[in-house]
Write a structure and sequence with these properties.
The protein is an alpha+beta fold and 162 residues long. It has a single domain (16-157), classed as Maf protein. It contains five helices and five strands. It has helices at residues 16-29, 56-66, 101-109, 137-141, 145-157, and strands at residues 35-45, 48-50, 70-81, 84-96, 130-134. Strand 1 (35-45) and strand 2 (48-50) form a beta hairpin.
Length: 162
């Protein structure tokens, strides 16, 4: 696994799924290799896209906004082989329990939310915040494997472009 070095741009409005697919394509295009996978994830709450928080204050605010609420998590995946790039996205619906101020302070103090969309890692400490998950947990973690399994064979079946 190699980071792409792509600087994620702010959500320009419009379709969040198209946005994460564009980020995933940019990441796949930024790395050399025969077959390259790029992915990006956002959290969507009331039509607002929550990316990675800028600091601990923004992380705490994001978590408070998710407290006791449902939200969508969308992960875009792109697979590039040569010049050919295929992308798609997966969506999951997540419900958080009501969070106490102490829950938020403790979680943010651990540093985990600072590089995560929506300021949380389902596979980490924030898994305890989730009361319901509709969809694939891999989507929330940031790499929907069922979607990747669909995109990879498509890429591998096509003749290599040079």
């Amino acid at each position: 696994m190699r980071p792409s070095g792509v600087e994620e741009w702010p959500f320009p409005g419009g379709d969040p799924a198209g946005y994460v697919e564009a980020l995933a394509r940019a990441k796949a295009n930024a790395v050399s290799g025969d077959v390259v996978i790029g992915a990006d994830t956002v959290v969507v709450l009331d039509d607002a896209v929550l990316g990675k928080p800028a600091d601990v204050e923004e992380a705490a605010a994001m978590l408070q906004s998710l407290s006791g609420r449902e939200h969508d998590v969308i992960t875009g995946v792109a697979v590039r082989q040569g010049a050919d790039v295929r992308s798609a996205h997966a969506r999951a619906r997540v419900t958080f329990r009501a969070l106490e101020d102490g829950d938020v302070r403790e979680y943010v103090a651990g540093g985990e939310p600072l590089d995560k969309a929506g300021a949380y890692a389902y596979q980490g400490g924030a898994g305890a915040f989730v009361t319901r998950l509709q969809g694939d947990a891999d989507t929330v973690v940031g790499l929907p494997l069922k979607l990747l399994e669909r995109l990879l064979p498509e890429a591998l079946r096509r003749p290599r472009q040079r």
